[in-house]
Amino acid sequence: MSFGGKYAPFVIGAYAISAVMFLWMVIDTLLRARSARKTLEALEAERRGAGDAP
Amino acid sequence: MSGLGVLLRRELSLTWGAGGGPLLSVGFLIAATVLFPLSLGSAAQILGAVAAGLVWVLLALASLLSLERLFARDFEDGALDIIALGPLPLEASCAVKCLAAWLTNGAPLALASPLAAVALGEPVGAVPLIVLTAALGSLAFVFVGGIGAALSLVSRGGALLQTLIVLPLLIPPVIFGAAAVFAWTHGLAWTPGLALLAAYALAAIGLGPIAMAGACRNALG
Amino acid sequence: MISGFANPHRFMSFSRWAAPTLALIAAALLALGLWLGLSAPPDYQQGETVRIMFVHVPAAWTAMLAYLCLGGASFASLVFRHAVADAAASAAAPLGAAFTAAALITGSLWGKPMWGTWWAWGDSRLVSVLVLFLLFVGYIALRASIEDEGKAARAAEILALVGLINLPVIKFSVDWWNTLHQGESIFRAGGPLIAPVYLIPLMLTGAGYSAAFAALWLTRTRMEVRRRRSLGLALRAAR
Fold it and tell me: Closest residue of C to A5, CA-based?
């Protein structure tokens, strides 16, 4: 495995930015997915609770 | 046909009468052209090399800016509702609006563009081709820019958003038109660029109104 | 099968197992592809920088794939009024923008050692990716600027389809411009033929990026479906 040579900063930079991009996408997607699920569960619980008393 | 004529006459009187019409867009073109020698320096070689492309970019921007109120005015005072419910298909009405916008702003810009081009160093012999390509190009700009104007009816974004969503779509006509003029001044074949530009303009005229009508219905519905 | 996804419940139960599975597949493909790519010998001409190909080319491919998905979902939403389709369209846009930005930055980092400039307007593929970025940004900006969800969906569909139809024309015009200004395009990233020792890692990382996009897209679409349902519930509760 070699990253070396005088162009190492370019290669490392390219891999670093790709990793950052992946991390952002994964974290942002998972966080939003979790918050959407929690919000929906809360609203559905409310609706079920309210539904008991028409 | 008379319905189209009535609408066209109405559009022309509104756009021409409201605040200067062609004078405004041509004025913008000239004012913007002046900025380039002032910012680039007056070296003739530099200006001459970029003149064709610069004029095309300015033509696109001037056309887009003049389209900002293409649908907004009628949308706000309810006239668009009436037009949509009227006897003409909404696609045809949109096409007529664009035609009126072109006659008011696009065609005068096309006639004025040689002024800008020659001032920046294009050879005078290129003028007929410049006018022809500018006329076709401004048709394309109006019929594609109108899509942006119609889409932004429901949006809070202003002219900048309208222009942003449409500018990438205008890359082909800008390339074809500028290339045709560039080819002419360098003794290369200029007919391919012109033909591609004409084809694009025709496609824009045919397909643009469909998207515009869809966007207007979305705003009205 | 496509109409099966129109049903939100079926989509949700499908994506529940499909998304994690694709994520695992993606991780495996990426790990293998990068390991092979990083242990391959350096290129005769490009030296070590050839390894940037393994993160640049897949990013560009996936950016294109994302736009096709955006367009396809927008088409389904406009024509068939699939409930899930609009959610899928709005989910694809930020992912596409991220892959496109990565493709542009890695492309610039690859170009500097190769051609000596940070950006080469003569590389029509790179310019096309830049245009793709503008298309994603425009789509996201338009959606963000419209309050009404329904109207935002319809307007965004139109923009996406107009962009999709124009994309081949834009690509063609940029290529055409290059042959005029440069003669034969010399900017062929990676050379006209890619040596087999690089081809396999490239295919692997390419597949890995695509699988990752698919996993992320499914997850984000689930998020959008839930968000829309929450909005509906909240509106009803407010009455």
Answer: C48
Q: Kindly determine whether residue C216 and residue A50, on different chains, have CB atoms separated by under 8 Å.
A: no
Which residue do the tokens 């003794």 mark?
B187
Choose among C155, C134, C133: nearest CA to C144: C155
SS3 C43: strand
Percent of chain C with pLDDT over 70: 92
Cα distance between residue C66 and residue C217, in whole Å: 9
Tell me the sheet residues that pair with B122: none
State chain C's mean pLDDT as an integer.
88
State the Cα–Cα distance between residues B190 and B177, nearest whole angstrom.
Answer: 9
Q: How far is A23 from chain C (nearest CA, A)?
A: 11
Nearest to C195 by CA among C203, C185, C187: C203
For A28, other C-beta atoms within 10 Å of its C-beta total 15
- Nearest-angstrom CA–CA distance, C235 and C229: 10
Please tell me the distance from the alpha carbon of residue B154 to that of residue B215, in angstroms, as a whole number: 9
Please tell me the distance from the alpha carbon of residue B161 to that of residue B154, in angstroms, as a whole number.
12
Contact check, Cβ <8 Å, C166/B169: yes
Residue A4 binned pLDDT confidence (cut-offs 50, 70, 90): low
Q: How far is CA C237 from the centre of its chain?
A: 38
Nearest partner of C142 among B156, B65, B159, judged by Cα: B156
User: Please, how many CA atoms are within 13 Å of residue B139, restricted to the half-sphere of its CB?
Assistant: 19
CB C65 within 8 A of CB C195: no
User: Would you list which residues of chain A are within 8 Å, Cβ to Cβ, of chain C?
Assistant: 1-5, 7-8, 10-11, 13-15, 17-18, 21-22, 24-26, 28-30, 32-33, 36-37, 39-40, 43-44, 46-47, 50
Highest mean pLDDT out of B22-26, C11-15, C42-46, C90-94: C90-94
d(CA A33, CA A27): 10
Measured distance CA(A33)–CA(B42) in Å, rounded: 57
Determine the pLDDT at residue A1: 44
Verify A-B touch: 3 or more CB pairs within 8 A.
no
Q: CA-CA distance, B94 to C30, in Å (whole number)?
A: 50
- Tallying the residues shown for chain A, one arrives at 54
Amino acid at the residue C212: A
The whole-angstrom separation of Cα B102 and Cα B104 is 5
Q: What is the ipTM of this complex?
A: 0.90
Task: Please tell me which chains touch B, using 3 or more CB pairs under 8 Å as the contact test.
Answer: C
pTM comes to: 0.91
- Give C5's pLDDT tier (boundaries 50, 70, 90): low
Q: Amino acid letter at C159?
A: L
Task: List the structure tokens of C215.
Answer: 């996993």
